[in-house]
Description:
Elements: H1 35-53, E1 66-68, H2 80-84, E2 91-97, E3 107-113, E4 119-122, E5 130-132, E6 148-151, E7 155-161, E8 169-170
Antiparallel strand pairs: 1-2, 2-3, 3-7, 4-6, 4-8, 5-7
Amino acid sequence: MLLAGDEFGRSQMGNNNGYCQDSELSWVDWDDLPESAEELRTFTKRLITLRQEHSILRRENWRDGMTITWYNPGGGEPTEEQWADAGSTTIGLPISRDHDDEEAWDDVLILFNPHNGTRPVRSPGSGERLDGRVDHRRSRRWLEEARSLRLRYGETQPRAASRGLSPMSMEAKG
């Protein structure tokens, strides 16, 4: 979720109750926005476009026919220990539904890597090509199709596959 001003680092001087202030603390200064603000705006517009184009990303009812499972870097469901381990940070979220003849996407894989390091990631399933759409670290361009990718620090990668998903395979680099 983005709050007005997040796109250019507006912090409300650390006050999380700025809504009750009528001062510079809560005012939004739209002049002289940094380049990063434009990058976030462009990235957010792309996410909105994807959501508008693909109904699997905009649900009318919670879990209406979709399946959600979290996967750990080893390709299985995270154990209690992995959920509790602060160092266990790379995770995948596949979202699937029954085939829809009117939609191109029946399966989406979103990969998160907040870990301070690179994680090679192979495409899930039987090696079908993934249609990479958004990489917030490269917000100025769309990703190309790939069978594998490197998930760098801080990257969130939504990926779409044309076939059913199986647990993904991720390996930590050396």
